[in-house]
Amino acid sequence: MRTTFIASILALGAGMTLAAPVSSNVEARGDGGAHITWYGGHMLDDPYCGGTRPNDADLVAATPWDSPYGCGDKVHFDYWGKGVTVTVIDKCDTCSGTWFDISKGAFSRLADLDVGELHNVDFWRA
């Protein structure tokens, strides 16, 4: 009986070890997913981070002022198996939290522009 009890404890401990995550990249991933909209045209003028004006086809993003992502950071978005990596070049005055404005070129890699906005998009620092 005592041997059975000890074997049960060891098996439980082994199961818990196997259930533990192999690596933790939680802090790099968005919590609850991103809200994504697209921007283009005159809104691409004079990016906050400086540099040349991007065009609609460039894979760029504007982040909220309270975002941990800053100028030059790369952020990857994954939406229903479609993905795109963008470079942060601007700030979005109307965005907050995990809301990102991305270029038309970047958005079109995730969904049709007519959709307008996406919710619960997985994202992480690339």
From TrEMBL:
InterPro entries with a match to the protein in the record: Expansin_CellWall, RlpA-like_sf
Membrane-crossing residue ranges in chain numbering: none
Signal sequence annotation: 1-19
UniProt keyword annotation of Signal present: yes
Keywords: Signal
Protein name stated in the entry: RlpA-like protein double-psi beta-barrel domain-containing protein
Species of the source: Malassezia caprae
